[in-house]
Amino acid sequence: MAKTAKQASGPANEAWETIKSVGSVLLIVLVLRVFLFQPFTIPSASMEPALYEGDYIYVSKYTYGWSRHSIPFSPPLFDGRIMGKAPQRGDVVVFKTPRDNRTDLIKRVIGMPGDRLQMRDGLLYINGVALPRQAVPPAGRIGYGNDLRFTETLPNGKQVQTQDFGPDGPLDDTDTFVVPEGHYFMMGDNRDNSVDSRVPPEAGGAGFVPAENLEGKAEFVLLSWKPGSSLFKPWTWLNLRGDRFFHRLD
User: Fold this and answer.
1) Which residues does the entry assign to the active site, renumbered to this chain (predicted)?
2) Dist CA 25 CA 220 (whole Å)
3) Which of 116, 164, 219, 232 has a 20 to 30 A CA-CA distance from 199?
4) Rounded to a whole number, what is the distance in angstroms from the first to the last CA of the chain?
């Protein structure tokens, strides 16, 4: 009987050791995801030309501190941010959209608390001043035909490339937006193909984004696949954009 009991305990001990090993790995992954970094896949062209559909990006979770949205499923454990730091104008940021506090979006920080923003004939005005921009020739892939590209200079001197269809799109003329304290105004670089802070949450947009909803700063592109490709579809692996590997984001 003692021998039988010993034999029975062997598989049980082995199963328990496996469970502990798997649990340790999952705990490490969770800690890394919450505190350090998280990968995201870009599902649309709203941030072209900075990000293409199919880019697989690295997002730092520590740059702006941590909130409940840093944790999977955004549990209501606390309010605000721990060791919070304000983003810089022009940062590319992943955040939870305020309309449901679940959906991840990625846009560029354009408006800071207290700013007044407006689009007029396709030009962006911040605090009554039109942002300088210069037309640039298209380079590489452009997602939707003969889009126009510009180098736009933000008030802090940061230059970003934007892309749009022309000055008469539905989001090229807007009312004036005044950014509340503790919130940010987000815009996609692909100005006529981005549902961002110019669109209110009740209409499916982002609206003003609370600081608490920031998840992290997009740092660089790890890998990039052409649309329709996937890491889980080995037959599509040759559809890689090799020139975008480890591409640093502005």
Assistant:
1) 46, 107
2) 25
3) 219
4) 70
Res 128 pLDDT > 60: yes
Catalytic residue among 44, 46, 70, 194: 46
Same-domain pairing of 27 and 50: no
Is 107 annotated as catalytic?
yes
Catalytic residue among 67, 107, 194, 224: 107
144's CB contacts (< 8 A; 6+ apart) are: 45, 165, 193
Q: Is the pLDDT confidence value at 142 over 50?
A: no
Q: Respond yes or no: is residue 46 known to be catalytic.
A: yes
Q: How far is CA 34 from CA 67, 169, 211, 214, 225, in A?
A: 10, 39, 17, 13, 26
Residue at 125: amino acid letter: Y
Global pTM? 0.85
What's the rounded Cα separation, in Å, for the pair 48 and 28?
A: 34
Structural domain range at position 85: 37-116+177-248
CB 64 within 8 A of CB 86: yes
- Quick check: 190 and 220 in contact, CB under 8 A? no
Q: 61 and 4 in one domain?
A: no
